[in-house]
Amino acid sequence: MANDLIVKDNRLIEAKYSLNKTQIKFIAFMASRIDKDDMDFFTYEMKLNTMLEVLEIERKNWKWLGRQLKELQTKLIAIQDNDEVMEYVALISYFKINTKGDTVEYRFDKAMKPFLLQLQNNFTKLSLEKILNFDSSYTIRLYEILEQRAALLKKYKNEKLINFEIELDELKEMLVGEYNPKTDKIEIKKSYSLYGSFKQKVLEVAYAELKEKGDYYFEYEPIKTGRKITSIMFTIMTNKEKIKTDFKEKKKKNLLNGKEKQVALEQIRRIISRSKGIREPLKYEQALFTKYLKGDLNYDKDLQQIKDHLDREELTNMMKQYKGIEEIEKQEIKLEAYKSRVEKFKDNLKKDKVTKLYTPDTAKETAE
Known about the structure:
Blueprint: E1 5-9, H1 10-13, H2 21-32, E2 44-47, H3 48-54, H4 62-74, E3 76-81, E4 86-90, E5 92-98, E6 103-108, H5 113-116, E7 123-127, H6 128-133, H7 137-156, E8 163-167, H8 168-176, E9 177-180, E10 185-188, H9 195-213, E11 216-225, E12 228-238, H10 240-257, H11 259-274, H12 281-294, H13 301-321, H14 323-351, H15 360-367
Antiparallel strand pairs: 1-7, 2-6, 3-4, 5-6, 8-12, 9-10, 11-12
């Protein structure tokens, strides 16, 4: 991917709107084309076939893409809508699909500038590749929310940030809410009004996909006020299995394409040059390369030193990459220890009678 990074203002991540999978991926692709030094939005042009390929749309369905973009032009994003402030923005102001020239042109609405351009703080970095890999728009939105919270956790190293609570009505508005100009309100479709339906169609879908594909996923617990579910408590979870898989894949790729491969090829050349009477040199070379991939190739002393240096360098880079994840794991351990102490304290309170003691001053204040 030419430019995988997307940088969004946190207000846009927390905004209330509803887009389908194609629309949200199109916006993500548009945002990934923005350069950090851009002072204004450009009108971008790209090959129609490339865009259709990115969005996994067949060429014959290009008009369907056009309808999705027309709908995007009418969508309003609620940044704020409360008793004190109403703030709405439009996403795109222009697009053009030209099948004869095989091009697509598009431009963000100027109202989006504060949320995508020249961001100095309160922003979150997202991966276009990961967004395009998700199958549900709900997964993408919750991926953004988790990345935002995980970034705060890394920055402030505060164990309280592992858990965060969102009011159920607010969460519904964020994920499935849509502004209705007739009622001048953000409305939730009836199919999501009951918690059971929202859980099944939104939360469980995102949970399953993030657990399979995300660097983070979430556990969640409904919080009740009386008999009514009023909020959701989320817990950020590090997807350790995916990290292990990614590490193995990256290592394999480095073996096939990196500097280590060059060292191995030099060692294989030396071994062959020292060997006498090889009947099938090509098969012998292939066998040595297979040993390299398995980690069983023996190196000359000078080449072993180079290999060791590359291994240390790679390990250092990987540790830097996952340092934030290690911090999260440490905080999770601390949090579990804290919860254990709290439960023990509660048990002791039940067993022991507690007497409240007052100093003369506090007793006087209490009487007053």
